[in-house]
């Protein structure tokens, strides 16, 4: 069994931004970025011939990283033949965690957790330190087996990301969006599966990218919809989207004030209360506490 050590609590991730690990210019610029999580990428943005170069560049850069965002590393997938090389190179740098792409089911999380146990032991890193955010909808297997994830215990697992592009490629389909920009049925199903699995596991549900980075109003509307549906954060495709995403996934002053009033009203010890002419019960209290927990 992999380590059962409970990892340290991490602050909620509202925004994630990927940074190619083989670009000196982008690595240096990452220090200025305001995303909650910066994901230094060893996978899709790095050509196969440059994987070793990217690992070496990241090993030189990350010890000097002084940005405000949590440092994460997107490693290569299990079938690539590169994942063990990635872990051997980067775990000693003590990143917050890894983004694990193209999972097929819970057995992938279990295996990688074992490998992280070994890598942390060899690097002298506290057992359980390295968290995992899994990209949960890039293979048909993963989408069809999403419910299996809730049957295992993986203390390292911090969140699930859903995305449509790799799944579209995997099944030989066309554009996952309709002409109006809505998700086609297959991808709406994958989105819902990932969202529900994340909440069943009590971890973060992270929405996929909004591709039109020149449309901040569209990005904001897309973020608001995702937040309303229950997603807790979103992947940015461009640095300009980060402030929009951070604001959309943060409670407003009005929401905070109302949540405090709800909690205060329930402190009278009753299971159902009346507030502003509406009857509230325990689910409303739980929602209010989630809003306030986001502040801490």
From TrEMBL:
Q: Where does Mg(2+) bind?
A: 138, 166
State where substrate binds.
Answer: 74, 138
Known InterPro entries for this protein? Aldolase/citrate-lyase_domain (IPR005000), Citrate_lyase_beta/mcl1/mcl2 (IPR011206), Pyrv/PenolPyrv_kinase-like_dom (IPR015813), Pyrv_kinase-like_dom_sf (IPR040442)
User: One GO molecular-function annotation for this sequence?
Assistant: magnesium ion binding
Top-level taxon in the UniProt lineage: Bacteria
**Residues in HpcH/HpaI aldolase/citrate lyase domain copies:** 14-239
> What is the designated name of this protein?
3-hydroxy-3-isopropenylglutaryl CoA lyase
**Cofactor(s) the protein requires to work:** Mg(2+)
- Pfam families attached to this UniProt entry: HpcH_HpaI
Its GO biological process terms? Answer: oxaloacetate metabolic process
Keyword annotations: Lyase, Magnesium, Metal-binding
